[in-house]
Amino acid sequence: MISQAKTDQTDRDISTVTDRIEIRDVYKIFGRRKEEALALVREGKGKSEILERTQAVVGVNNVSLSVPKGSISVIMGLSGSGKSTLARCVNRILEPDAGQILLDGEDYTKCSDARMREIRRRRISMVFQNFGLLPNQTVIDNVAFGLKLRKVPLAERHKKAGEMLETVGLSEWASHLPGELSGGMRQRVGLARALATEADVLIMDEAFSALDPLIRTEMQDELLRLQNTLHKTVLFITHDFQEALRLGTKIAVMADGAVIRDGTPQEIVIDPGHDYVAAFTRNVDRARLFDAASVMSESPADAQGGRFVLNDAGEVAGWQDPVTGAVSEGFLAVRPETTLIEIAGAAARRRGPIAVVDAEGKFRGRISDEALLAGIAGAKETMKGSRTDA
Amino acid sequence: MLDPEEVYIPLDRWIQVGIEWVADHFRPLFRSIRWPVDELLNVINGTLEAIPPLLLIALFGGLALWLAGKRTALFTVVSMLFILLLGIWLETLTTLSLIATAIVVCVIIGIPLGILCARSDRAWGIIRPVLDVMQTTPSFVYLIPVVMLFGVGTVPGAVAVIVVAVPPLIRFTNIGIRGVNEELIEAGIAFGATDRQLLWEIQLPQALPTILGGLNQTVLLAMVMSVIVAMIGAEGLGLVVLQGLGRLDVGRAAVGGIGIVLMAIILDRLTQAVAERDPRAHSGKARIGAALSRLFGSGHRQAEGKLEASLDSKN
Ligand SMILES: Nc1ncnc2c1ncn2[C@@H]1O[C@H](COP(=O)(O)OP(=O)(O)OP(=O)(O)O)[C@@H](O)[C@H]1O
Ligand SMILES: [Mg+2]
User: Fold this and answer.
1) pLDDT tens-digit profile of B143-179?
2) Of the candidates A82, A385, B82, B298, which lies 20 to 30 Å from A121 by C-alpha distance?
3) Is the CB of A85 under 6 A from ligand 1?
């Protein structure tokens, strides 16, 4: 099922969303002849041409991206597309060669080392693909690592680390070494370590990619669960589109160092806008991705003359049959965020018109059988949402 | 036209003159290098000689038990008793002090240099060829410049031992630090480590097994060289052998040789045990934990982990 947060996001007016991190026109070049390569990229030359002419590799090519507060933003792309490079520019493990990165409006790409350390210690933390845990330190010391760097006294940091271990369900493992834990457990430790500093931005670079599929799904659920209470700003890197769809409030697709498509999961699936992106979206299970709100029509009446009768409070009183004119209560009510697969399941058990009703019980829209099927099959015309970069 | 018997480039003279010039003009420098080595050697030798032999043997046995287990401990005690009975105890202590002094100085010089090399490609680019030359030069070749710059005796001997023994430690420290998993370094930076924190919290602890491997090499080289420096008048087991040979007293030479071999084996076992420790056991407390569990005959990892964990949690 699609998380609640995601539906909220689609409903929300974009202008009211505040960005925690804003990436502006960022470039990263690997190699000696940086200036030369940078000039060529700006002229619009391709990655392979630049490699041939200057021996420089374009890691990130003119990326602008905003990471909204309190949501999971996913960067998706195949191997070598520059996802890790971009993520590492965000906490300046790698220095961007051009552009700005803003944290709550502060451009920190040119700030002092001390300021950058402060940001890393308190604002932006990171979870690594291969966990990045110190093998000779106990689990609790690993979790307390960020606090130790901040010179928090031992008792205090162990207390905090203990709380974090409890959050991820590993309290009993506090005094074990990471080597004694399974992969999934180790990544929970990695997550606890990132949470322990109370940083509000989390960079997760392929954080679940090294895990078995089952454990991976479990960790995705865990992240969504934590996110429900913690509301961190997460920049999640993955090469797995399914994972991107499950986690992302927003998805940016990268290829050859550039962001080629950027939007909500629904927007991207409806209109990939790019063959490279379409290759990912082709096999998406739309029935699980889309919800009632995306296929409903706001009119209570259908083309055959049948209609929902509403009372004064805007609630659905019943369905008026187009032939007999009788008003019956034989209709199906779903919430706007109910997924199409759930609607289809309910409709199969009990046929009848489908009303979309919000939490207060007010009528929001109507879903025809055709719209439901078209939504599941992916017929573009019937769907809402449009490309943002058109 | 070129006579093979004739010298056309008198390199040997040039070197001789060059070194004499250095010795003349930098005498204070060499005296100041000599001084700490001399002091250290005296302190260590004085301490070792002040301890009653049987107590010292017991201490070594305990150390071996702690580091390497029962078998090495037994070997250490038996060998040292044998050395005591052979009548070469004082010579052995001198050799031991020579080695200990060299190791202390090597650690003080070698590890920081290794760290420098790991952090700066330029430094490594300069130091690496120097190490290459040092390590391919036969060790007794060092004796001549050492004699000219520092004179003869045990202290110049210690200087020669240091020069010969330090390269592996620099090399291994460099390799160890450069070889630390990139993700761990990134984790350190990502959580806001300063350069110093990165070094102490991540690089050195992770590189420690490799550095200790280098230390093992350094100890063995120091052992070998401590014998060779008998040629420039350094005292110890090497001198026993040399004097035995000089007087055609094969028995005496052989006794010295046996002492050298036994000490070499003991030192190798001990340093190797340090280097090959369980990677979990790099904190002092963990070592005690591991040693205790060994003492009680429990080689079981789990038990070791538990003990260590309980010791850690008391921290
Ligand atoms: N340190 C480096 N030196 C030179 N080139 C690099 C370096 N790091 C990355 N690159 C290059 O930059 C490009 C982007 O690499 P990056 O690691 O960001 O890709 P990615 O999308 O994270 O891929 P993956 O899914 O394999 O992790 C690649 O072409 C890579 O070869
Ligand atoms: Mg990557």
Assistant:
1) 888 888 888 999 999 999 999 999 999 999 999 999 9
2) A82
3) yes
| Annotated domain spans of chain B | 11-50+87-275
The verdict on a CB contact (< 8 Å) between A120 and B309 is no
Is A93 within 8 Å of B190 when comparing Cβ atoms?
A: yes
Supply the pLDDT for residue B6: 84
Q: Which pLDDT tens digit goes with each residue over A301-312? A: 888 888 888 888
Q: With contact defined as beta carbons under 8 Å apart, do A320 and A327 qualify?
A: yes
Token reading at B35: 């001084």
- The CA distances from residue A140 to A196, A339, B300, B308, in Å, are 11, 40, 23, 14
Provide ipTM, 2 decimals.
0.77
Nearest by CB: A132 against B184, B197, B310:
B184
| Class in CATH terms, B11-50+87-275 | mainly alpha
Per-residue pLDDT averaged across B277-293, rounded? 47
How far from each other are the two terminal CA atoms of chain B, in whole angstroms? 80
**Tokens read off for B100:** 């200990």
Looking at the predicted structure, is the pLDDT value of residue A116 above 90?
yes
Q: Is A96 in the pocket of ligand 1 (CB under 6 A)?
A: no
Q: Do B312 and A134 touch (CB under 8 A)?
A: no
Residue nearest to atom 27 of ligand 1 (CA): A79
Minimal-distance CA residue of chain A relative to B278: A136
- CA-based nearest distance A179→chain B, Å: 9
The DSSP result for A124-161, as a single string, is EEEE-TT----TTS-HHHHHTHHHHHTT--HHHHHHHH
Q: What is the Å distance from ligand 1's center to A258 Cα?
A: 13
The identity of residue A374, as a single letter, is A
Cα distances from A307 to residues A316, A360, A362, B219, in angstroms, run 10, 21, 15, 93
A83 CA distance to ligand 1 middle (Å): 8
- From the list A318, A385, A326, A322, the residue with the least C-alpha distance to A357 is A318
What's the A30 CA to ligand 1 centre distance in angstroms? 9
Please choose, from the candidates B55, B18, B198, the residue with its C-alpha nearest in 3D space to the C-alpha of residue A149.
Answer: B198
Enumerate helices (H) and strands (E) in chain A, giving the number of each. 17, 16
Q: Is B312 within 8 Å of A175 when comparing Cβ atoms?
A: yes
Hey, of A85, A119, A143, A175, which one would you mutate to test binding to chain B, going by the most B CBs within 10 A of its CB? A175
Q: List the domains of chain A with CATH numbers.
A: 66-99+109-287 (3.40.50.300), 292-385 (3.10.580.10)
Q: Is the CB of A84 under 6 A from ligand 1?
A: yes
Q: How confident is the model at residue A317, as a pLDDT?
A: 85
The Cα A166–Cα A192 span in angstroms is 9
**Cβ pair A149:B201 closer than 8 A:** yes
